[in-house]
UniProtKB/TrEMBL annotation:
This is Uncharacterized protein. It holds the Pfam family CRT10. It comes from Coleophoma crateriformis. It comes from the Eukaryota.
Length: 643
């Protein structure tokens, strides 16, 4: 374990216990001997591209994140077509044997049989995205499928059956998980964006119908439907609730009002909206869900009021770029200010080793701050170079994989100026304020309940259906005490709650030159995998092309600014590390998914005793190679107070 303070001037996230398993080494038995019974679709030709390791289950390409780790028990979930493979990671290296411990075959709704899938007509029920989060008091596994099915299981019931199977199976055949989903609905088109709100007990689903469906669970009725078959799950159990379209009242409900029974709420985008790959919830001042924050593939950011017809839109920062050059939107996260780590200097906040001058525009209104030039140092940083521990672990002596654990001006204004340090002449490590001519316009649009949009572009009006101009945007639907992270193809953007605060951007955060199968990997360049670990002040941003950025959320204290501190970020590392690429062990294939959770020894009551738990990060590639990392902090993060 190595901490590199001194080389870059700040404490990065601590990364240790780096390990990898090559996919070809994880499988030694034929796939048809591992699970039963087969599905009807198994006789069809498998997904293409030749990415399937012999003996391994078939992957479904061109999806979103298809892996997840439970936050409460030692279970790893990976989606292969319409099956979920469940495995308990072994030992401190998070080893995952090729043969899964249990397989869950997903039921299919009657409505799902009538829906035309978006990607693969031969495998219409294949999973597009999976997430794990608490719903009320219980953790759930939520899945969205290509035929529009949305299915949820309680992980504690899966764990109970997992433990029973571990005690009772000795014939070598992988047991089937027979837990019944407590939730099984259909959104009438391919389901992609998924979100769960634990306190308000809501599930939100973004689909290719260019709309968001919010499933609202009654606060007095039981959640579970374990006595009903999956086919009995239909829209009658979640009847539609619509706010009158011609009403001027906003809002008439809250997250806890009128919740005696289940209902569903459909939130449609305006004509300039598109398919929704990612979404999340925005809270009010009481921590209850107020809105759905969604990004569409055009990069538009939508604020959709759950309890009224009010909606707002912030357009892509690439709106003035020719359409063929635009970077599509792929991800969104709401980041509470409590998870931002206080820093002693702007250099530490932005991740630069050059000095940041205070002489220019600290009192100025708004602006955009670009930290792209710091990425080069982050990509070069490699704690494994200073570590004596080996990388490969399968077959090493004493390492049995079966052992377990014991709005503003017309141009963005430069808020800070970077001056090259006399001791560091590297121009690539500068933090710069963006200019209008850099094609970094920040447009903000406001859509009221009548469905008409109002926009203030940087210099020109946005020619979009139902869009007119307005002097200043309305932030009433912006999440309370939070900032918003939006991801594109290669770039990210941190949007503050107020126009008086700066927006931080980073271009090409993990973009790489692909030495092999270049064309194929380039088509997978999209930052469509995002996770956040608030207690570590960390956001994990993955590109499906194969690399992942470890981003620390930072707070630049108010002594550097006239009014308020600034919520921003820095890029600590990108993984796999440079040395892993140099060792030629990183597969030239896309990522199936990324997953993170506390280490098993830090789960539950044991973890509550630590001020900063240790976490594990698992990268899972199309060829079934596994890369794992342990993440921790030497000191706790400090919440950011922005009025």
């Amino acid at each position: 374990m190595v901490n590199t303070k001194g080389r870059r001037g700040f404490d990065e996230i601590i990364v240790s216990n780096c390990a990898c398993q090559l996919g070809i080494e994880r499988y030694s038995e034929p796939w048809d001997e591992l699970t039963a019974p087969p599905l009807a679709e198994d006789v069809l030709h498998p997904p293409h591209f030749g990415l399937n390791t012999p003996g391994a289950p078939y992957i479904s390409p061109w999806r979103s994140n298809l892996t997840a780790l439970s936050q409460q028990c030692n279970l790893y979930f990976a989606a292969y077509q319409s099956r979920i493979h469940i495995t308990a990671p072994r030992n401190i290296k998070q080893a995952l044997p090729g043969k899964s411990d249990m397989v869950l075959v997903l039921p299919r709704s009657l409505e799902g049989h009538e829906i035309l899938p978006a990607i693969d007509s031969d495998h219409p029920h294949a999973v597009n995205h999976i997430v794990i989060e608490k719903l009320g008091d219980h953790e759930v596994l939520l899945l969205g499928c290509d035929d529009g099915d949305v299915i949820a299981f309680y992980t504690h019931l899966i764990m109970e059956q997992f433990e029973q199977a571990a005690r009772g199976h000795s014939d070598g055949v992988t047991p089937l998980c027979r837990v019944t989903p407590f939730f099984h609905e259909n959104v009438k088109s391919s389901a992609w964006g998924l979100a769960i709100h634990p306190e308000s007990r809501l599930i939100a689903v973004g689909s290719n119908r260019r709309e968001v469906t919010v499933f609202v669970f009654g606060l007095t009725d039981p959640l579970t439907r374990l006595n009903k078959s999956p086919s009995a799950a239909n829209s009658i159990l979640f009847p539609d609730w619509d706010f009158p379209a011609d009403s001027d009242e906003i809002p008439t409900r809250s997250a806890t009002e009128g919740r005696e029974e289940n209902f569903r709420r459909t939130l449609s985008l305006c004509p300039n909206g598109h398919n929704i790959p990612s979404l999340t919830f925005g809270n009010d001042e009481n921590g209850q869900a107020r809105s759905v924050i969604a990004v569409d593939i055009h990069g538009n950011l939508w604020y959709l009021d759950i309890w009224s017809n009010n909606k707002q839109c912030r357009t892509s920062m690439y709106i003035d770029v020719p359409e063929h050059q635009r970077s599509w939107g792929w991800g969104v996260q709401v980041l509470n200010f409590d998870s931002f780590k206080a820093t002693a200097s702007p250099e530490e906040a932005f991740g630069t080793t050059s000095r940041v001058s205070k002489k220019l525009g600290l009192y100025e209104y708004g602006g955009t701050f670009d930290v792209s030039r710091t990425v080069r140092k982050a990509q070069a940083a490699d704690p494994m170079v200073h570590s004596t521990s080996g990388l490969r672990f399968e077959g090493e002596e004493g390492d049995d994989v079966n052992n377990s654990y014991d709005e503003g001006p017309s141009e963005p204004i430069a808020v800070l100026e970077t001056l090259a340090d006399a001791s560091d002449s590297d121009d690539d490590d500068a933090v710069t304020g963006t200019k209008a001519q850099e094609k970094m316009r920040i447009e903000r649009a406001v859509l009221h309940q009548n469905g008409h949009a109002r926009v203030r572009p940087a210099q020109a009006y946005v020619q979009t259906p139902n869009v007119v101009s307005e002097a200043k945007p309305n932030h009433s639907l912006f999440p309370h005490n939070s900032a918003i992270l939006r991801t594109y193809k290669n770039d990210i953007e941190l949007i503050p709650a107020s126009d008086s605060l700066i927006t931080t951007t980073c271009k090409n955060i993990v973009r790489q030159i692909h030495p092999f199968q270049d064309h194929f990997l380039q088509h997978n360049e999209r930052l469509n995998m995002t996770l956040q670990i608030p207690e570590l002040s960390l956001v994990i941003i993955g590109s499906q092309a194969g690399k992942v950025a470890l981003v620390t959320l930072t707070a630049c204290e108010s002594e550097f600014f006239i009014t308020k501190p600034v919520a921003t970020f820095r890029v600590d590392y990108t993984v796999p590390f440079r040395s892993q690429f140099q060792d030629d062990i990183v597969p030239p294939f896309p990522l199936l998914g990324i997953a993170a959770s506390p280490l098993p020894v830090d789960m539950g009551d044991a973890g509550k005793k630590r001020h900063s738990r240790r976490w594990r990060l698992i990268l899972h590639y199309y060829d079934h190679s596994i890369f794992s990392y342990e993440l921790s902090r030497g000191s706790p993060g400090v919440g950011l107070d922005i009025a």
